[in-house]
Amino acid sequence: MLREMTKYPFYVLLHPFQGFWDLKYENKGRLRVSLAILLLLAIATIVLRQYAGFVVNFNFPYDLNSINELQYIVLPFFLWCVANWSLTTLMDGEGKFKEIVMATGYALLPLVLMRFGNTLISNVITVREAAFYYLFDILSILWFVWLLFIGTMTVHQYTVLKTIMTMLLTLFVMGIIMFLGLLFFSLLQEMLGFVLAIYTEISLRI
């Protein structure tokens, strides 16, 4: 069982159409595996930013905060899943929230592999060879987008054009959610400040 769970993400990586089909209709996907891939991506990103070779690493390691790094991986992941589920519910999508999370998680595998690989490569390449580092990084991003596209299309049973439109609209909805979240916390902060000011004023008068 454990062997099958670890092999299946690589099957999806190389056979995305059949892999995502089996994820949805053959119940081969596992939520804990997709979340484990997300965790590995967060670790790979932190390791890359901390230990990449000086040829390509322009970060000052002592200024990096691992907790802050996590928010740039975990938050967009769940924002995408929530926005996609909210949108596709209104667009006759067949995917459940769990299936969206699993498909998105499995699609992250190229980023995990390439970031661990690039950490090793960056420590042995020269300045002239740095182009390969960036090439591998771009290829992993394109591979991720390709898998995410196929996963979205398969999970919701959309056409190609509808999938592209849905993915673009999902990004737009993510922006709306972030705006509303920032607005909510800003108003909450203002309200708390107002209440605190009233309390302070009353305390001084008493």
In a few lines, what is going on in this structure?
The protein is mainly alpha-helical.
> How many β-strand runs?
0
Major sheet details: none
What is the H/E order?
A: HHHHHHHHH
Main structural class: mainly alpha
Please give the share of residues in helix. over 70%
Mean pLDDT: 89
Rough shape?
Answer: globular
Low-confidence runs of at least 5 consecutive residues: none
Rg over CA atoms: 21 Å
Strand content: under 5%
Q: How many domains make up the 3D coordinates?
A: 1
Question: Distance between the terminal alpha carbons, to the nearest Å?
Answer: 69 Å
Helices, by number, come to 9
Describe this structure in words.
The chain has helices at 2-14, 16-25, 31-51, 66-71, 74-90, 97-107, 109-122, 130-156, 160-205. The termini are far apart. Helices cover 80% and strands 0% of the residues. It is globular and about 70 Å long. It has one domain (2-205). The model has no long low-confidence stretch (mean pLDDT 89). The chain is an all-alpha fold. The chain has nine helices and no strands.
